[in-house]
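User: I've been trying to design a sequence by hand for this structure and keep getting stuck. Would you show me what you'd pick, starting by listing the structure so we're on the same page?

Assistant: Good idea, let's start from the same input. This is the structure you sent:
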């Protein structure tokens, strides 16, 4: 299978490196990372250590069997337009936040699959990605139900040793992931702490409140997500990724735009009743973004 990974950041590079062990992979990203991968290959360090030899480019190839989209949610529109000229059999989003698949499907002429990914990764230097935690990719039809394309992608991930589950309830899975991200990302970014800081005390209460609000909005929209499940999933991810710096914390530390609009901002926009915790987290992160833009 030829996989084009659109977005050679930390997660895209890690998945691209793992997939390159069994498939032809083209990483599409920016220099200097792309230049370094072209010159010396991609070094994966940490949980597993190996050198992968994917192709790397700043432009999208003309054809591929699968486009794996791993850009920040704010860049999904650009990704969709760039991929529109590529002849594809399927596209899979493994991005944080909601609404990415619909943006991709509006431009692409192939099945667009939804995915969630809990693998931990960090870009250490151009050409080097740290594999910081083994996780799971869950993927399937974006509206739920069976999908031949999802089965084929699941098999391709298995062949590369990536833990992958093909699910027929992706709408629920996406809301579950949204609850976890709404609970963890903004709080860790604002407090500048690792995920494990939300395991007890005020951090735990804040995360649980944000997760419960998200579950309530999911139920308002017909998704069966209980408060208890949203909180227990959050607590599990906090435990499993205690030493990780969340993606939003990494964005804040490196001065990049965050995914607040597609996470807590999405919960606020979809809520029928007030969601004060998500509202406050959204306002504080937007305040930080305005300060960054003004500098
Ligand atoms: O965005 C992130 O950082 C990750 O999705 C998660 C699960 C919160 C772990 O850090």
């Amino acid at each position: 299978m030829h996989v084009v990974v659109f977005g050679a950041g930390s997660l895209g590079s890690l998945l691209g490196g793992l997939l390159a062990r069994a498939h032809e992979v083209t990483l599409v990203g920016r220099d200097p990372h792309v230049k370094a991968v072209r010159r010396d290959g991609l070094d994966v360090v940490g949980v597993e250590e190996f050198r992968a030899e994917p192709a790397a480019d700043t432009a999208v190839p003309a054809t591929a069997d699968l486009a794996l989209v791993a850009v920040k949610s704010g860049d999904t529109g650009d990704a969709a337009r760039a991929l529109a000229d590529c002849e594809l059999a399927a596209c899979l989003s493994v991005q944080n936040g909601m609404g990415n698949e619909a943006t991709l499907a509006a431009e692409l002429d192939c099945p667009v699959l939804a995915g969630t990914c809990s693998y931990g990764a960090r870009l250490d230097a151009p050409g080097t990605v740290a594999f910081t935690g083994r996780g799971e990719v869950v993927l399937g039809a974006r509206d739920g139900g069976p999908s031949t394309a999802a089965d084929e992608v699941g098999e391709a991930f298995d062949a590369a040793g990536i833990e992958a589950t093909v699910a027929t309830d992706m709408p629920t899975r996406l809301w579950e992931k949204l609850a976890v991200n709404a609970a963890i990302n903004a709080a860790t970014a604002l407090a500048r702490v690792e995920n494990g800081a939300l395991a007890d005390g005020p951090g735990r209460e804040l995360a649980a409140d944000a997760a419960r609000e998200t579950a309530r909005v999911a139920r308002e929209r017909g998704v069966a997500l209980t408060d208890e499940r949203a909180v227990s999933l959050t607590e599990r991810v906090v435990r499993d990724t205690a030493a990780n710096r969340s993606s939003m914390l990494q964005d804040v530390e490196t001065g990049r735009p965050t995914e607040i609009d597609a996470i807590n901002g999405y919960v606020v926009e979809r809520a029928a009743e007030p969601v004060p915790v998500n509202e406050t987290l959204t306002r504080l992160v937007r305040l930080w973004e305005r300060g960054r833009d003004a500098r």
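That's my pick for every position. To get oriented when you compare it with your attempt: The mean pLDDT is 96. The chain has two domains: 2-167, 171-291.
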